[in-house]
Amino acid sequence: TWGAAGVAGGGEGAGLDEKTGASLKLTVLNPKGRVWLMVAGGGASVIYADTVAHLGGGAELANYGEYSGDPTAELTYQYAATILDLMTREAHPDGKCLVIGGGIANFTDVAATFKGIIRALEQFAATLIEQRVRVF
Predict the structure, then answer these.
(1) Contact 108, 42 (CB under 8 A)
(2) Is 10 exposed, middle or buried (0-12, 13-18, 19+ CB in 10 A)?
């Protein structure tokens, strides 16, 4: 979780959840895992993680978390950049995958959140390509 042992090194993401009324949760389950999730919504995040496990990828699931509650583009960028930083600290010979998704957004400005996500993806683009990360 943010600021706890779950996020190795804490880094820029530590304390993000406390800076806003939005929810920005992240727990690293397996820092060497190949499947990373960036999911909007608490219910959706459970479904995505359960689906990875159900399809046989539980041992490769790297993180669990969710962003929701109308975070700003800047906070979403910081959240996404933290996940991408953690994900790319160590390459895997078979590559990795990042699954971006969510459920129904009741009052979240989805366009603003995706501006933040796109900014982070652009920042990490060269590393993601070099490490053979597939984005879904």
Answers:
(1) no
(2) middle
DSSP string for residues in the chain: -TTSTTSTT-GGGTTGGGGSSSEEEEEES-TT-SEEEEEESHHHHHHHHHHHIIIIIGGGB-EEEEEES---HHHHHHHHHHHHHHHTSS--TT-EEEEEEE---SS--HHHHHHHHHHHHHHHHHHHHHTTEEE-
Strands 96-102 and 133-135: parallel
**Token couple for 68:** 């929701």
Give pLDDT tens digits for 8-55.
444 445 577 676 778 899 999 999 999 999 999 989 999 999 999 999
- pTM recorded for the entire structure: 0.87
CA distance 1 to 3: 6
| Cα 95 from Cα 102, distance rounded (Å) | 23
Contact indicator for 100, 31 with CB cutoff of 8 Å: no
